[in-house]
Design a protein that fits this description.
This protein has 947 residues and is of the alpha/beta class. The protein is 43% helix and 16% strand. GO terms for molecular function: ligand-gated monoatomic ion channel activity; signaling receptor activity.
């Protein structure tokens, strides 16, 4: 026998024995694990990641794992089919004596997730779940015993942690409203209440609409007063949302925050926008391993963070089971029951400590380490997740291209961690400014156009809104409503004006002299009144009373003045005649009255003066001495007293009547006449008032007519109704008809122009809010406010129904009231307004007679003074040139004559001459008898005339 074949056989036997030994050794280090893998339809990334994990186990024998996997897939909304599939696979594994060591659950949420949880809990199968939600969200695992908490584990996926960054951003930026849009890459069902719990932020969480409704969805969210948008989704979904928004939604009063699981750059076709962009970053210590897994095992699906999460979770769960099996901690008498054997009370009691084994795994992770709570007080489920960071950037997009990306900071994944800000100034620029849309109607002094003003308007309401903005802290943009109406409802229940804008969510605030009305409050909300009880009043043209400087002369007619003047001259002449011819007059009895102190000769001049001064309080002076003259004087005094008294009384009455010449003084006066036309503004609250009052009268009349013509009434009952005369009341019906015939002005300016164009024959009266009329009267001297206010209503700021601005504005207005700021504003715009005219008002005229009507008296004074001056000049001229005596010097030879001459010279002013007559009087009065004519006669030839 050839030895070589014998040696070959020996070698083969030896090799076979060695192979058996190697296999024996390998069998001792490799652990066979049975896995029941349950996934959800459309969660393909979990399938791929688990397959890669199994492939990784196969290619890395040092792990000592051999995995046999059973796969079950279920629908999120169909629990029955999923439970049947689970029971079938589980029962088959028990029949094959291959019971699962682990149930790997990657269902996301909903019925499928709860079905798996219920299944594992009932049958006592160790489970590692990657479902969404915290512990309270896992309804089937809410009340687990400590033993079951050891083997029923849940780890939150990254897509469940990423939305928490919204909470951190809102807290940091103090955002008061938010719209959170998400696509199918995120699950937000369980976040509706928990995400922003205990944060005072109005928010809406909703899925992204399809292409047809996406634009209208954003529009509706904006109409809910939301201007902060958070978009959670893939980059494709984010791009669609951004491109569906209007360009105006990227202005400074809006803020966009887009959050994705993907790591690519943001692109979208937007004209001009700056967007906060958040995406996850892998752990720096795991980048080499991540790159190796991507290239070697081809795990390149997006989003990477979710794929590597499933990979690491699967690998960690397998290693944890292997460690339990190899350590001998796995129960040797593990009890399994089938779905059919389960009766609701016979769940096997296992003592498997899968949680400890899961925590103690040292296998490195690929994207980020797992964050596992420490301490028994913090539950594992709902608090365990993969750690990662979110990169926060500001992306500027111009004309569809990203032109600039600036890093703002980072956020470390956590349930409550704040954001780490690197550029505080830049991140604050990304906040949405609180800018409210204000619609108004121009009506002075509440709202007036002013191109120089910051907002293009000024007025009482603008100042009021600015003061409120200082308290509430907001900005606003103001526009004038197109139809110029505050808001009225037509017969079809449709509104116009500012009310329409508020209903359609196109306006946040309705500002102006807007009355609080019951029908308006059914569709919008009003703040507390900022101006109480403003009624309707009447504005008319101010009657122009012609003024004259000599109006006091018009009190008496011209013929009366002529008769008075004739009586004056006649009485003066008669008094002169009586004094001249009466034997008892002074001029005819000088010796008799020579010792009287007053010696008055009544010539023509004195008679005229006496009669004139008798008409004045000064009196006429000394009366004539003769009885006949005194009778004439007494008659003239009586006549003058009657004339003066009559003139004074008539002057006062005349001026008073001229001031009270007002044709209409109330609404009743207006309704009872037909000469003056009247109407309110078209579409105003005053128009609504008169229209509805007319309608009420018509309804009352119909009711009365039906009652009166009711045949079922007895004669006594009908007689009781008969006292209500026909028509029941038609005051407002007639007024409304008159208003329609007169034509309703469309603006206050048109109404004022119609008033000014009206004449005394056909006047026009405007009926409107008293505040508007009062301001027009203050700024126009030709207008007046007539009558008392009626139908009073307060003014308030209008907001959308249910708007939070109502409470904020209420608090601000009440604060301003307490500070008396509103009173100061009223003073500023109704009393201290710079544009109001300083004109004479009817109320001012009641204090006295104006200078325009009595100024002629002063002219009379000046004329009299002028005439007196002229007379003085005439007297001087007459005295100097027409009636001047010759004057000579006097010389005496004797000592006495010299003394007299000396006395005369001393008395006579220097440089002046003494007339001969004056000299006689002087020497006589001083008892100088030494001056005799005979003494002067010899020297007459020596004197020369001076003139």
């Amino acid at each position: 026998m050839d030895p070589r074949p014998r040696g070959r056989w020996v070698f083969l036997i030896f090799f076979q024995i060695a192979s058996y030994a190697i296999l024996e050794t390998f069998g001792q280090t490799t652990q066979n694990i049975n896995i029941l893998f349950v996934n959800e339809v459309d969660n393909n990334l979990a399938n791929v990641a688990v397959e890669v994990a199994l492939n990784y186990v196969k290619k890395n024998p040092q792990l000592g794992l051999s995995v046999d996997m059973m796969y079950v897939e279920g629908n999120r909304t169909d629990s029955k089919d999923l439970l049947q599939a689970l029971c079938s696979k589980y029962g088959q594994s028990l029949n094959d004596n291959r019971p699962p060591h682990l149930l790997l659950d990657t269902t996301l949420t909903g019925v499928s997730s709860e079905t798996v949880k219920s299944f594992s809990l009932a049958l006592g199968i160790p489970t590692v779940s990657a479902s969404y939600g915290q512990e309270g969200d896992l309804r089937q695992w809410r009340d687990l015993t400590p033993t079951k908490r050891g083997y029923l584990l849940q780890v939150m996926p990254p897509a469940d942690m990423i939305p928490q960054v919204i909470r951190s951003i809102i807290i940091y930026m103090n955002i008061t409203n938010a719209a959170i849009l998400y696509d199918n890459t995120f699950v937000m069902d369980h976040k509706y209440k928990a995400l922003l719990q205990n944060i005072p932020t109005r928010h809406v969480i909703t899925s992204i609409a399809d292409d047809r409704d996406r634009a209208s969805q954003i529009e509706k969210l904006r109409n809910l007063d939301i201007n902060n948008f958070f978009v959670l989704g893939s980059l494709a979904s984010i791009k669609q949302v951004l491109e569906s928004a209007k360009n105006e939604y990227f202005e400074r009063n809006f803020a966009w925050h887009v959050i994705t699981q993907e790591q690519k750059d943001l692109t979208c076709n937007v004209e001009n926008a700056t967007i906060m962009f958040l995406r996850p970053m892998s752990d720096s210590s795991s980048k080499d391993r991540l790159g190796s897994i991507r290239t070697t095992y081809n795990l390149k699906q997006e989003p990477q963070i979710t794929g590597f999460f499933y990979f690491d979770l699967t690998l960690r769960a397998l290693i944890a089971i292997k460690n339990i099996l190899q350590s001998g901690s796995w129960p040797s008498n593990m009890k399994y029951i089938t779905c059919e054997d389960y009766d609701g009370t016979n769940t096997p009691n296992h003592t498997i400590d899968l949680k400890t084994a899961f925590v103690e795994v040292t296998e490195p992770t690929t994207f980020g380490p797992f964050e596992i709570p420490k301490g028994a007080k913090i539950p594992f489920n709902g608090n365990t997740y993969m750690k990662f960071d979110m990169d926060i950037n500001a992306v500027s997009i111009r004309s569809g291209a990203s032109v600039n990306t600036r890093n703002l900071g980072t956020w470390e994944a956590s349930l409550s961690a704040p954001i780490n800000v690197a550029n505080e100034a830049e991140i604050k620029n990304l906040t949405a400014d609180v800018v409210y849309r204000v619609y108004t109607v121009v009506q002075a002094p509440f709202i007036m156009r002013d191109p120089t003003a910051p907002k293009g308007f000024k007025g009482y309401c603008i100042d009021l809104l600015n003061k409120i903005a200082e308290i509430v802290e907001f900005d606003y943009e103001i526009r004038e409503v197109e139809d110029g109406k505050f808001g009225n409802m037509n017969e079809n229940g449709e509104w116009n004006g500012i009310v329409r804008k508020l209903i359609d969510k196109q306006a946040d605030i309705g500002l102006g002299s807007m009355s609080v009305m019951a029908e308006r409050e059914t569709v919008i909300d009003f703040t507390v009144p900022y101006y109480d009880l403003v009624g309707i009043s009447i504005m008319m043209q101010l009657p122009s009373t012609p003024s004259s400087l000599f109006k006091f002369l018009t009190v008496l007619e011209t013929n009366v003045w002529l008769c008075i003047l004739a009586a004056y001259f006649f009485t003066s002449f008669l008094m002169w005649v009586f004094d001249r011819y009466s034997p008892y007059s002074y001029q005819n009895n000088r010796e008799k009255y020579k010792n009287d102190d007053e010696k008055r000769e009544f010539n023509i001049k004195e008679c005229l003066w006496f009669c004139m001064t008798s008409l004045t309080p000064q009196g006429g002076g000394e009366a004539p001495k003769n009885l006949s003259g005194r009778l004439v004087a007494a008659t003239w005094w009586l006549f003058g007293f009657i004339i003066i008294a009559s003139y004074t009384a008539n002057l006062a009455a005349f001026l008073t009547v001229s001031r009270l010449d007002t044709p209409v003084e109330s609404l009743d006066d207006l309704s009872k006449q037909y000469k003056i036309l009247y109407a309110p503004l078209n579409g105003s609250s005053a128009m609504t008032y008169f229209q509805r009052m007319a309608d009420i009268e018509a309804k009352f009349y119909e009711i009365w007519k039906e009652m009166s013509l009711n045949d079922s009434l007895t004669a006594v009952e009908r007689s009781k109704l008969a006292v209500w005369d026909y028509p029941v009341s038609d005051k407002y019906t007639k007024m409304w008809q008159a208003m329609l015939e007169a034509g309703l002005p469309n603006s206050l300016e048109e109404a004022v122009q119609r008033i000014r164009n009206s004449t005394s024959a056909s006047g026009f009266a405007f009926l409107g809010d008293a505040t508007d009329i009062r301001y027009q009267v203050l700024t126009n001297c030709d207008l007046q406010m007539v009558g008392e206010e009626f139908s009073r209503k307060p003014y308030a700021i209008a907001v959308q129904q249910g708007s939070p601005l109502k409470d904020q504005f209420n608090n601000a207005i009440l604060m301003l009231l307490n500070r008396r700021e509103l009173e100061k504003l009223k003073e500023q715009w109704w009393k201290n307004d710079d544009v109001q005219n300083k004109c004479e008002k009817p109320d001012d005229q009641s204090d006295g007679i104006s200078i325009q009507n009595i100024g002629g008296v002063f002219i009379v004074i000046f004329v009299g003074i002028g005439m007196a001056c002229i007379t003085l000049l005439f007297e001087f001229w007459y005295y100097k040139y027409r009636n001047n005596s010759k004057v000579i010097d006097i010389v005496e030879s004797s000592e006495q004559q010299q003394q007299a001459t000396t006395v005369v010279k001393n008395v006579r002013p220097a440089g002046k001459l003494i007339k001969q007559d004056s000299l006689k009087d002087f020497t006589k009065g001083q008892n100088y008898q030494t001056l005799r004519t005979r003494t002067l006669m010899p020297n007459l030839s020596k004197f020369q005339p001076r003139f």
